[in-house]
Amino acid sequence: MRSSVLTTALVLSFWILAASSPAASAAASPSANGGSHLTVHDVFGLNTLVLQTFGFTATIKSDGHADGWFQYRDVEDGTPFTADGPVTCLTVMGPDAWIGATITKSNDPTVVGLGGWWHVTDNGQGSGSSPDVTSFLGVGSLDAAAAFCANHPAYRFPFAIDGGDIQVRG
Description:
Layout: H1 2-19, H2 22-26, E1 31-43, E2 46-60, E3 66-76, E4 79-93, E5 96-102, E6 105-106, E7 115-121, E8 133-134, E9 138-140, H3 142-151, E10 159-160, E11 163-169
Antiparallel strand pairs: 1-2, 1-11, 2-3, 3-4, 4-5, 4-6, 5-7, 7-8, 7-9, 8-10
């Protein structure tokens, strides 16, 4: 009994020390993460657009640079599109985040090496909150992705997610 109490006290002490360490303060840096899926009809010239997987994590590191990754998969009128890669920029303002990345892998070779960007809104947790919001992945130049974060434009096409969870921390 005494050894389990001592072990518990040591683990608790280690956890408290770890929580107050510099690595733990990095967790207080601006960040956005989550995953979402949704289905929409009659948008962007498509009959059905299904966002099957949109997972991402983005954090501002202590040196001011963004770090993270994204994985994206949608089906556009039956044709799948995939993209993933590292996050290159992040702007957080209140519950909103603007995120940019470099597409390093895709089933469409014409987009590999281009920039990708998206905007998300965290509408809170629990049954009383509205659904979180996302845009679909925008694709263009790396400069356009950086400008998206820098200029943090209003949504052009916001969509409430059908499932998943988005968390934004300032």
